Amino acid sequence: MRRTPRTRRDRPAVERPQVVAHRGSSHEKAEHTLAAYVKALDEGAEALECDVRLTADGHLVCVHDRNLRRTAATPGIVSTMNLAELDELDFASWKNPWGDLDEDAPDQDPDAGKVLTLRKLLETVADYDRHVELAVETKHPTRYGGLVERRLVEVLGDFGWDRAGSPARVMSFSRTAVTRARRLAPELDVVMLVDKAHHWPVLRPVVGDDWIIGPGVKELRDHPGLGRHLVKEGREIHVWTVNTADDLDLCLDLGVTAVISDRPAYMLELLGS
C-alpha cells in the first residue's frame, strides 16, 4: 500500500533559476576537487552539486565513478579502498596532464587536487561568507546499499543540516535511495533524478508528491512532452547538465528552479547576474 504522501509543495515562482555548480566548476578545474568547488564559489555559484561514494572504512568521498581509472589513473574501486589509500592519489592531473610543463602556470596547492571528503566540502560551505546550498547525489548500485544514505544523514546531522531549513538536498537516480533518505530525514528536500523520459510514467505513481524532479536537459530537448507534463503537474524541476545558452533558454521557458552546470560562471553571465 502506498504511504500517505506529504502535501505537494507549491511550485515556486522564480525570477530565474538557481545556478548549481556541477561537481564544482568542472569545466575549468578537475571535477570534485576542492579547487573546483572554491572556483565555483568565487564565480558566484549559489549551490554546489556533488556525488558521494562510501569508502571501505566508512567515509563519504566526492567521486562520481565506481572506479578511479578516469580521474586518478588507477584501476582501484572506491568502495574497496580506505580513505588513507585514496588520499595518496592525484585527482587533478588528468584535467591538465601537461600542466607541469607550463612555466607560467600559478603554483597549485597539492591538497586542492586530493580526494575530497563530503565532510570537508560541508565545512567549506559552512565557513563561506554567504549562503550556499548543496545538492548531494548518492550513487547506486553499491555494495553498501542503504548505508550510504545513513552515513549521509549522519554527516549532515553533525552540521545541523538534517532538518527543515537545511541548505542541503539529497538526489539519486535510485527511487529506493530517495525514499530511504526521506525516511531517515523526513524534513529534507529530495530530488528524483530522471535520465530517460520514458521512465517518468513508471516513476510518477510511486514518487512522493513533494519530491523535486531532476531530468536531464537532453531528455527535455529530445522529448518535449516530459517538460510539459512536469509543468502541468506543478512539479519543481532541477535540470542537469545545462552548459549552453540554448540549454538555459529551454530551462527558462519551462520555469525550472535550478540549473546544474559545469560552467556556473557562464550561466550567471547569461542570466545577467
Key terms for this structure?
single chain, 273 residues, alpha/beta, nine-stranded mixed sheet, 32% helix
Shape: globular
Main pleated sheet: 9 strands, mixed
The stretches of 5 or more residues where confidence is low (pLDDT under 50) are 1-5
Task: State the end-to-end distance.
Answer: 47 Å
H/E topology pattern: EHEEHHHEHEHEHEHHEHEH
Radius of gyration: 18 Å
Q: Give the tally of β-strands.
A: 9
Number of helices: 11
Name the average pLDDT. 93
Structural category = alpha/beta
Strand content: 15-25%
In helices, the fraction of residues equals 25-40%
Structure description:
- By secondary structure, the protein is α/β, with parallel strands linked by helices.
- It contains 11 helices and 9 strands.
- It has helices at 34-43, 69-72, 83-86, 118-127, 147-158, 175-184, 200-203, 217-222, 224-232, 245-254, 264-270, and strands at residues 18-22, 47-54, 60-62, 133-138, 168-172, 189-194, 212-215, 238-240, 258-261.
- Strands 1, 2, 3, 4, 5, 6, 7, 8 and 9 form a 9-stranded mixed sheet that branches.
- Strand 4, helix 5 (147-158) and strand 5 form a beta-alpha-beta unit.
- The longest helix has 12 residues, at 147-158.
- The radius of gyration is 18 Å and the shape is globular.
- Mean pLDDT is 93; it is low at 1-5.
Q: Short summary of the structure?
A:
With 273 residues, the protein is an alpha/beta fold.
